[in-house]
UniProtKB/TrEMBL annotation:
Pfam families with a match to the protein in the record: YkuD (PF03734)
Pathway given in the UniProt record: Cell wall biogenesis; peptidoglycan biosynthesis; Glycan biosynthesis
SUPFAM superfamilies, sorted: L,D-transpeptidase catalytic domain-like
Listed name of the protein: L,D-transpeptidase
The organism's place on the tree of life at top rank: Bacteria
GO BP terms in the entry: cell wall organization; peptidoglycan-protein cross-linking; regulation of cell shape
Domain L,D-TPase catalytic intervals: 27-151
PANTHER family: L,D-TRANSPEPTIDASE, L,D-TRANSPEPTIDASE YQJB-RELATED
Cellular component aspect of the GO annotation: extracellular region
Molecular function via GO: glycosyltransferase activity; peptidoglycan L,D-transpeptidase activity
Alphabetical list of InterPro entries matching this protein: LD-transpeptidase (IPR050979), LD_TPept_cat_dom (IPR005490), Transpep_catalytic_dom (IPR038063)
Sections of the chain in a coiled coil: none
Amino acid sequence: MIQLMLAIILTVSPIWPIGPNPLVGDPFIIVNKKTNELAFINEGEVQKVYPVGTGIFDDFTPEGSFSITVKAKDPYYRRKNIMGGSPENPLGSRWIGFNALDTDGRTYGVHGTNNPSSIGKAVSQGCIRMHNEHVNELFDQVPIGTKIFITTSQKNFNELAREQGALH
């Protein structure tokens, strides 16, 4: 009986992948390390493009298609034991973690910063930094399970989104 209930829950769960993902109209994020920009795609169009900071070396920010697995307001910075909400916290006001390189969404993420001058540059240890007001805006629009595609490309966001199935 428990196995049947578990099978039903997993089948109808909103984060369980059913068919191609993303579907046109689904929320979708693309990060282009070449331009240090992040595009938020929703309802079949690029809604907004934000400046971001990415890995100081090309291989620090992993490339590929991942899923958002963790979201946190005022995230705690484990590496240096800094409480969320502290002005010294380099993660800023929000954490949107994704499952790159078999991590659980707690190693790589899109997050705010306490160093806004780093945005637009290759400066991080692998995460994607945003201005706090931008990550706060994005945080409210992306549910757990949202796909994020990270690349280094000359293509524009419409081309990349079409290739990933997020736009017609």
